[in-house]
Amino acid sequence: MSLSPAVKAFPTPEQVSTFEDKLSHDLAQRAFKANGAFSSETSFEPERATNAKTESYVTAEGDVKAEGYISVEGSAKAERDDTASAINEQDVAHRFSKAAVQYNSIAGVQRIIAKQALANLPIDLQGTALDIGCGTGIHTQTLANKGAAATGVDIAEGMLAQAGKMYSDPIFVEGSAVDLPFCDSQFSTVFSSMALQWVSDTGLVANEIARVLENSGIAELAIMVAGSFSELKTARKVAQLPQAETYMPTTAQWVNGFKQSGLSLQRVITKDYVDTHCDIMSLLRSVKGVGAGETGRKQPPLTRRDIKKLAMAYSNMSGVESKLPLTYRVSHFRLEKR
Question: InterPro entries per the record (predicted)?
């Protein structure tokens, strides 16, 4: 994995005519680098598996503590919400059920993100732990290995079927993050990695986490936020292809939801994890293969000509044909119920 700059400024239609005249390499490079690389102002739990730098939306006041987290004070930096359509949870459940069998073998960047989120938890967990969006149960089992009585919940039947085959220690339950099938104050720890970005209502999720947490309980959440997949969005823009609508709330929206739920925000750090692919088909399959994809209005499938245009745009922007980057922007939250 390697760092590539995220892009927020796109070329205008006047700057990009048609691909029949072929893209200007210099123009594509400028489009890709318009926003520059992220600065690394604060430390985070060391992660040797990725070279992605971080952009912190709060001011960290110290190094990583023994338990593996950072104490911070500050307010979230506002992010522009350029997402449009609400998420259909039935569609999400269907996509992830289809991806269940192959998920563990191809979800490389997701494993790295989850490893960071798990490292942020105390080494030894006491009491009960809930893994929201548990998928195939691999991280639920890690919570059990840390000493907790672990339960996993997911909306995708296919994922839960895989989890039940692979692990016998945790309990796995079908349910939605916006309506958790558990009693009030049932868990001392709530964990979630790369799942809550697919929910339909951030406020409901925040309220549900607050409801099922016991007093003094903690939540450690890794959530993909708006700004993810920026390179793919820019390449579509340059190639003059319709945008695939992938709705993701902003970090600021999550912060507001947690505050309104009564949870105490202990820390939020936003980090870019950049995956690289050898060609455009590998990149597109990686997104589809882990269940991620369109969450708004459906777009027609890409034709061969569309894919060729997209591949040319991506290669010209990255500058290296065999290294196509894809950014997963993730906010790591630590919350406490007081």
Answer: Methyltransf_11, SAM-dependent_MTases_sf
H-run or E-run covering 94: helix 89-106
Please give the pLDDT value at position 189. Answer: 99
Domain ranges of the chain: 41-228+249-276+328-336
Which residues are CB-neighbours of 308 under 8 A, at least 6 positions away?
A: none
Alpha-carbon 213 to chain mean position: 23
Identify the bridge partners of residue 174 per DSSP, sorted by sequence position: 154
Cα separation, 205 vs 261, in Å, equals 9
Q: How far is CA 48 from CA 62, 143, 184, 275, 331, in A?
A: 20, 22, 38, 14, 19
pLDDT value for 7? 35
CB atoms near residue 278 (< 10 Å) = 11
User: What whole-number distance in Å separates Cα of residue 181 and Cα of residue 271?
Assistant: 31
Q: How far apart are CA 338 and CA 331, in angstroms?
A: 22
Alpha-carbon distances, residue 8 vs 76, 82, 153, 254, 277 (angstroms)? 19, 11, 35, 21, 21
**Residue 99's pLDDT is what?**
46
Topology annotation, domain 41-228+249-276+328-336: Rossmann fold (3.40.50)
Task: Supply the pTM of this predicted model.
Answer: 0.72
Q: What is the pLDDT of residue 108?
A: 79
Q: Which of 165, 141, 166 is nearest to 151 (CA)?
A: 141
pLDDT at residue 28 in the model? 39
Residue 25's pLDDT is 39
